Every structure is written in structure tokens, then in C-alpha cells.
Amino acid sequence: MIYFGGQIVSEKLRAGVVTGKEYEKLVAACKDGGYALAAVNVTSSSTVNAVLEAAARNNSDIIIQVSNGGAGFYGGPAYPDSLKGKVLGAVSLARHIHLMAEGYGVCVVLHTDHANRGLLPWIDGLLEEGQKFREETGKPLYTSHMIDLSEEDLEENIGTCAAYLEKMAALDMSLEIELGVTGGEEDGVGSEHTGADNPKLYTQPEDVVYAYEKLNPLGHFSVAASFGNVHGVYKPGNVKLRPVILKDSQELMSERYNLPEKSLDLVFHGGSGSSEAEISEAVSYGVFKMNVDTDLQYAYSEPVATYVNANQNAFIAQIDPETGQPLKSKYDPRKWVRQAELGMGAKLDEIISVLNSKGKSLAEK
Ligand SMILES: [Zn+2]
Questions:
Q1: Is 99 domain-assigned?
Q2: Domain count across the chain
Q3: Residue 207 a catalytic site member
Q4: How far away, in angstroms, is 223 Cα from ligand 1 center?
Q5: Residue 1 lies in a domain
Q6: How many CB atoms lie under 10 A from the CB of residue 28?
Q7: How confident is the model over 257-272, as pLDDT tens digits?
């Protein structure tokens, strides 16, 4: 922080992909400024471009992330070696963003989404590629990777995460972990008891303290804590959202280790479908990142249906059967893919304003 005339002015950063200490400065600025960054899942250069366009329009820094499935799609779903395709797809995506992001004039965090134990070979491949990229450019390929071992025992989860954090810190990278299971539509969370002491639905503050104790000496990390949030959108009412869990975790940490308030860097998974008030409350407790996937998938796809319905002839034949005119200008994929990008961007405008990051980019202009 730079103190200027009694006011705290956040230090400016270079536009483009931010990593290492610059990433930590960006996270600190979010928490100090009471805002969070949208972390958008992408699957193609089209979705990447839509995100960069919206971030620039809003003068907001942004997190772009890819799941293993998204990386496989980016690399091409027919790539003969599936694991290698997912590694190289993620490398290709990252290189696209390293090349293009700076020109949009905002800071971009590059991140990989959920990897459970079965997906650790994907992370291993990315760390190998990250090492090569660092030798070539002096920068990490990704700002951070996420490892989600929340379905395992706490000791196993944190033990494995600690081993990975050591490797990542050596590459100037950060790690995101998950504590407590963020329910998804496949998890049938409604069948379990839903009290605040259920560690599957609600991360226990003592578990957060344990993670801090083991991971903090090794490098920078962030925590996705469960507070009744779910992945995807489905019928509400089963599980109560309790953002106060995040506050309790922060307070226990500060008390135990004599730390300033909101020392933990918290991540909100399963943000789709949450109310503005719930999001704002979570952000006020030190959430700097909110994952958004499902709502933006819909926002990308819906305009395509509208476009196809409005131009039906162009999706039945190449020549209009009524007028004899060629329909190339209507079915050109750029026409309807662009509608998808605009739809995704418009939804992202809304999300950025709810997260309060609009106009707050730290990038030097
Ligand atoms: Zn999660």
C-alpha cells in the first residue's frame, strides 16, 4: 500500500497476467477495498475474449480459470491422448491469455479450477509445463492451481496440498484449497442433516486454522470454504447459506495467531444463484474471488437460440428457398458466436457490479 495524503492508495500493477507478489497485492487490494473478482470458467478463445472484453469495459480486474474438462475442450476433444490433451489445452489457453491480456489494460489472474486426487496427474503435467514456461519467460504459466481434496480426511487433504504448495511456491505460484464439500446437484446434499455443525456442508473454523498452520509457512494459499453454497443452480431451500461461517473462521484465526482482521484469503465457490445480499455479506468477510460458471454458460448459450429462431432459413439451407438469396452472411459462425459473446459479457457486467470491482482495476493506464 502507498499512503498518499492520509489515504491508502493501492499500488498500481502492470496490465496483463499477474503472478506471485503482484497477485498477493491484488488480493490484498480486493479485501481492503471491499470487493471481489469474478473467476470465470472458460472453454474456448471465444469465451476468453468475451471475458477480457467485459473486464476492460468495466475497468475491473478479473480471474480466468479453466477446469480439466474445459482445458480438454480448448485443446480439442479428439486429441488422441486425453491427459496430454488436457495439459496442452491448458497451456495453449494460458499462452493465448499471456499474449492478449495486456492489451485490454486490466490485470488478469490465470487459474485452474477443481482438481481432485484423480486429476493430480493433470496438475503434475501443468507444473512440468509451468517449469518450462518459467525458464523461457521468467513468469509462471498460471498464477495458481486449485486442488480439491475436500472429500478426504482433513489430514490427507492438507498433507497432499502442502506437498503441492511447496512445488508451486518454487515456481512463484499460489494454491487454492477446499475445506468442506461444496454440494453439487449430483451430491444429493438434501438427504443429509443440514445443521451448521455438519462439516460436509459447512467448513469448521478449527479446520481452517489447521490448514493455515500447515500451509502458511510454505507459501501463498487461498481457501474455498463451504458455507452452504452449492455448485450449479438447482432448487433452493435444502441447505441454508451461512456466510457467517467465514466471519467465524477469520475471527478464530486472528485471535489464535494475533493477526490483523480478515487475514485469510477466501474464495466463494458455487456463486451462481446466490442473492446479492448473500454475496455482499461473504465479500465483507474477506472473500476476494467468486467462481461463476453456470450463469455465464446460460448467458452465452441463450442468445444463440434467439439468433437461430430469428434466422431460421439460414440454418436449414445455404440458399434461401423463398428468395433465392445466399444466406452465408447469416450462418457465418462469427455472427452467432458473437451474439453468445455479447450475452456472456452482459451477464458479466452484472456480476462485476454485484462484486463491486467495477472501476477498480489496479492496472497502470
Ligand atoms: Zn468447490
A1: yes
A2: 1
A3: no
A4: 10
A5: no
A6: 16
A7: 999 999 999 999 887 7
Q: Which residues are within 8 A (CB) of 122 and not within 5 positions of it... i.e. 6 or more apart?
A: 68, 71, 83, 86, 87, 90, 115
Nearest C-alpha neighbor of 252 from the set 222, 212, 218: 212
Give domain status of residue 44, yes or no. Answer: yes
**Are 154 and 210 in contact, with CB atoms under 8 Å apart?**
yes
Residue type, 83: L
In the numeric block, which cell numbers belong to residue 234? 438447482
In the reported structure, the alpha carbon of residue 270 is separated from the centroid of ligand 1 by a whole-number distance in angstroms of 7
CATH number for the domain that contains residue 350: 3.20.20.70
Domain extent, residue 100, equals 16-355
Q: What is the DSSP string of 275-317?
A: -HHHHHHHHHTTEEEEEE-HHHHHHHHHHHHHHHHHTGGGGT-
Inside any domain, residue 8: no
Count Cβ atoms below 10 Å from residue 155 Cβ, excluding itself.
Answer: 10
Q: What is the pTM of this model?
A: 0.93
Rounded-to-integer distance, Cα 316 and Cα 365, Å: 48
pLDDT digits (tens, 9 = 90+) for 216-274: 999 999 999 888 876 655 455 556 788 899 999 999 999 999 999 999 999 998 877 78
Catalytic residue chosen out of the listed positions 32, 61, 81, 113: 113
If you measure from the C-alpha of residue 224 to the centroid of ligand 1, how many angstroms do you get, rounded to a whole number? 6
The environment of the single-atom ion ligand 1, i.e. residues with CB closer than 5 A, is 182, 269
Cα separation, 222 vs 249, whole angstroms:
13
- What is the Å distance from ligand 1's center to 52 Cα? 23
